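Quick start: read one record
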Amino acid sequence: MGMNIIGVDIGGTKCALSVPEGAEGVREVVRFATTDVRGTLERIYAEIARLAPTRETVFGVSCGGPLDAKRGLIMSPPNLPGWDRIPICAELTQRFGGRAWLMNDANACALAEWQFGAGRGCQSMMFLTMGTGMGAGLILDGRLYEGVTGNAGEVGHLRMAPDGPVGYGKSGSFEGFCSGGGIAQVMRRRVPEFAGASLLKQLPPDQLTARELGRAAEAGDALALAIWGEVAERLGEALAWFVDILNPERIVIGSIYQRCERFIAPGMQAVINREALPDSARDCRVVPAVLGDEIGGYAAVAIARYHGGRPGQA
């Protein structure tokens, strides 16, 4: 018996295929390294064939952007050099039949946390990636909101200050202040300026990362805790905007927030309480994502579930 849903997660270093398991689970079937374009695609198709898809199979494909999701095209993502105008959905349906949908990873992860994770039971929620970059996926009134051209949720591009760390090609942007790449920029500026002792001073500039900032904060490092305080302030400012504009039930934040919530949440929540409308702030919970490193498989399956006629909870 063939699989009715097959999820395909395409990343810069690895690809994975996943299928639903039981009512609420997802099982990764195979994982392999991403190589050249055609070799990787042929490996994906060979692994799909082993799963015996039927003419009724729904494929969900999660991939970093830019994409043309409406036409099912991968459009040269930075982490996938050479993947220019790849018609992944058309190739899947031509080979196997069924239906196929492509979605950027921020939207797909929003669906995953909504269907399987920290956003379950919500009608309106926001998912923030808070990884190397900063993107968002929006679930509004029980539907994924993608905007007119599919670019809704590009919150990293928002300018928070006239100047500051660079993210999304813009200095002083939300991505600049709160993403992994931006936090590293802040560290490279602050560490040489700091007069006191700090574990961060023992690291070369290329090792000043959000992960190392978390380790230093765990050891009680004063500079690390101060930098997390700055991140919390900026994150709280941005979330207060989103709370006022969208009035969501929940904001789910992945990656860095997932790992370092205890250093960020108190300061962030204080800013939300100070800046957002009181009723809206009270009705919105900010929580870490729960799917962790497995989110890619869940995201790809979530795309297929959503477009296969079962949005939200099964």
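The two ends are 21 Å apart (CA to CA).
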